[in-house]
Amino acid sequence: MQNGIILMGKFYPMQGLKDFFDVLISQSVKEAISLQTHPADDGRENYTVSDIARLVNRSPETITRHIRLKLIKANKVGKSWVIPRDSYFKYLTAAQSHS
User: Fold this and answer.
1) Domain ranges of the chain
2) Burial class (CB in 10 A: 0-12, 13-18, 19+), 74
3) How far are the Cα atoms of 3, 57, 74, 95 from residue 99, in angstroms, in the given order?
4) What is the gyration radius of the CA atoms in the chain, in angstroms?
5) How far apart are CA 79 and CA 1, in angstroms?
6) Which residue, of 2, 42, 54, 99, has the greatest Cβ tally within 10 A?
7) d(CA 95, CA 54)
């Protein structure tokens, strides 16, 4: 006889539950570490392309491409892009939901 648990009429073997919870816990820990390592709000009103790239762990080229594709709302100041705080939060939320 195999060890397991019956939930809502379906049998789940113990090894399957262990694997499921290992993945679930691992994802939760990674997300918590990411939020601590890359704080979502440091109080600034504007960010540079390099700032956003560092905060979301992407290259500056990727961030610039996302600006040109209008995935991130930004303003051109001279030769540089300036990303408003609310645009950063929208992008961060979208990036987290796609990962």
Assistant:
1) 11-37, 46-98
2) buried
3) 34, 12, 23, 6
4) 20
5) 70
6) 54
7) 13
